[in-house]
Design a protein that fits this description.
The protein is mainly alpha-helical.
């Protein structure tokens, strides 16, 4: 079952269960997915693949985390709690992230594979990481690790 099919199925189940907050979040995700599909049409793509759906979901989580931070600073805990609930629903569709040790090992392997010797080779290493671990690796955390390993 593709991620798209899973999302559609979960919307139906959530509607039947009467969970309004979850249904609302899932409908928002489906709307964003439809927008992403429409944006890809000029490239000749009718429906974006699961990798792009995962990237879209990660982007949605990231923007909600930023909102939570702003709401917390603005003393609006009820809005922050709503965003946190949306994050939980969206993250349930994302593949699990690598832990710190696995991430370090992936960076070490990528550096060895590319033969990277200096910070100038960082792009090559990041490309290998993205190709092999895009779904399970947080690239924002991997960047500083790659930089540190190449600077040492």
């Amino acid at each position: 079952m593709t991620l798209r099919e899973s999302l559609t199925e979960q919307v139906k189940l959530s509607m039947k269960a009467g969970t309004a907050a979850r249904t609302s979040t899932l409908r928002m995700v489906m709307a964003k997915l439809k927008d992403t599909d429409i944006a890809a049409r000029p490239k000749g793509i009718d429906q974006v693949p699961d990798e792009e759906v995962v990237a879209m979901l990660r982007g949605m989580v990231k923007s909600r985390r930023e909102s939570v931070e702003l709401y917390t600073k603005g003393n609006r805990p009820e809005l922050a709690a709503k965003e946190e609930a949306e994050i939980a629903v969206i993250e349930s569709f994302l593949p699990s992230q690598m832990d710190e040790a696995a991430m370090r090992q992936a960076v070490t392997d990528a550096v060895a594979e590319t033969g990277a010797a200096s910070i100038k080779d960082m792009g090559k290493v990041m490309a290998v990481l993205r190709a092999k671990h895009a779904a399970s690796l947080d690239m924002a955390k991997a960047g500083p690790m790659v930089k540190a390993s190449l600077s040492a």
